[in-house]
Design a protein that fits this description.
By secondary structure, the chain is α+β, with helices and mostly antiparallel strands. The chain is built from twelve helices and 16 strands. The protein folds into two domains: 212 residues, Up-down Bundle (Glutathione S-transferase Yfyf (Class Pi), Chain A, domain 2), CATH 1.20.1050; 107 residues, Alpha-Beta Barrel (ADP-ribosylation fold), CATH 3.20.170. The structure holds glutathione.
Length: 323
């Protein structure tokens, strides 16, 4: 198997959080090296001397040491929710990483900045947050009615502001749309996954993956997907299948649910037993062109997920499903 990329990360760092968020969105699996910022591993500093997290070291030894570039790299592999479709994210991200982060740091840690006053930075930070809130009120998300790279890149910093001033954040009328927006990220099951804990990396110890509750999908075993006949007809017309599971599209869920053979009956009984005739698609995992990752369901069982559309050429067989 090819070597997985290595991610140096720090759990609470908002830059590392947005990088991990993008890796989750894209269905990627990496080697996870949690870093104690006071004792950065020599391997990380050798890869990137500037000593900030996140750092992603790719199989070909290419190094990505800016969180935004990690996000772009991940979403270039797969972007099932279309986060990169809106090309206007740059201005907001620059405002976040520049002025907003500047005020956030000085508001949060005023004692580390002699001569600065909390109020000045609180006022300036709040003005930015209120403007973002107004934009969300207008569009649903920061830029449009769909999440974009800007939404994914900013939420960890807005969360930090709330942690610094929960009273002010929670009771400001103008921040209501922003609060609801932030809640969407924090209530999403992805949040818990990206905040999983790990001990600082020990080269001699266990070598965890991120996400820790996922594994790579073996390419030697077929995958299966139950499909409604009408959805399959649409796919044969469009040349590609984009249904995640019964009644939900790939864009809504972020991946296509699959099963291994022994999981099929359970999947059928949970979701399709009253659906009438159902088709069974047999998928060759070697022929899909989007990432595959097996993620833990709430029961803890691992299920294979395809983080992109299913090309018809990867469907080896289509037959009525028989229990
Ligand atoms: N521009 C960098 C900033 C990353 C950054 O500043 N990370 C902080 C942690 S949140 C860090 O590693 N600081 C180094 C240190 O604290 O020693 C990026 O986007 O990746």
């Amino acid at each position: 198997m090819t070597q997985l990329p290595v991610l140096y990360s720090f759990r609470r760092c908002p830059f590392a959080m947005r990088a991990r968020w993008a890796l989750l969105q894209a269905g990627l699996l990496v080697q996870w090296r949690e870093v104690a910022l006071k004792h950065k591993p020599a391997e990380m500093l050798q890869a990137s001397a500037k000593g900030t997290v996140p750092v992603l070291v790719l199989g070909d030894d290419r190094v990505i040491d800016e969180s935004l570039e990690v996000m772009h790299w991940a979403l270039a592999q797969a972007d099932p929710r279309g986060l990169l479709q809106n090309r206007d994210s740059g201005t907001l991200i620059a405002e976040n990483d520049g002025p907003f982060k500047h005020h956030l740091d000085r508001f949060k840690y005023t004692d580390r900045y002699p001569g600065e006053t909390t109020e000045t930075h609180q006022r300036a930070g709040l003005a930015i947050l209120r403007e973002w809130s107004r934009q969300i009120d207008q569009h649903g998300w920061l830029l449009s009615d769909r999440a974009s790279l800007a939404d994914g890149a900013l939420w960890p910093f807005v969360r930090q502001w709330r942690i610094a001033d929960p009273e002010g954040f929670d009771h400001d009328d103008q921040l209501k749309p922003l609060r609801n927006w932030l809640r969407r990220f924090l209530k999403d099951p992805l949040f818990e996954r990206l905040m999983q804990r790990a001990d600082p990396w020990d080269p001699a110890g266990a070598q965890p993956h991120f996400p820790a509750d996922a594994i790579a999908v073996p390419l030697t075993q077929p995958l299966f997907h139950l499909a409604l006949e009408a959805d399959w007809r649409t796919a044969t017309r469009d040349g590609v299948y984009r249904i995640s599971t019964r009644g939900l599209r790939l864009e809504q869920v972020g991946f296509i649910h699959c099963s291994w053979e022994e999981q099929l009956l359970g999947t059928y009984e949970r979701f399709y037993s009253d659906a009438g005739d159902v088709l069974l698609l047999e998928i060759d995992p070697k022929l899909v062109n989007a990432p595959l990752r097996a993620d833990a369901a709430p029961t803890g069982d691992l299920f294979p997920h395809l983080y992109g559309a299913l090309p018809l050429k990867a469907v080896r067989e289509v037959a009525p499903f028989r229990t």
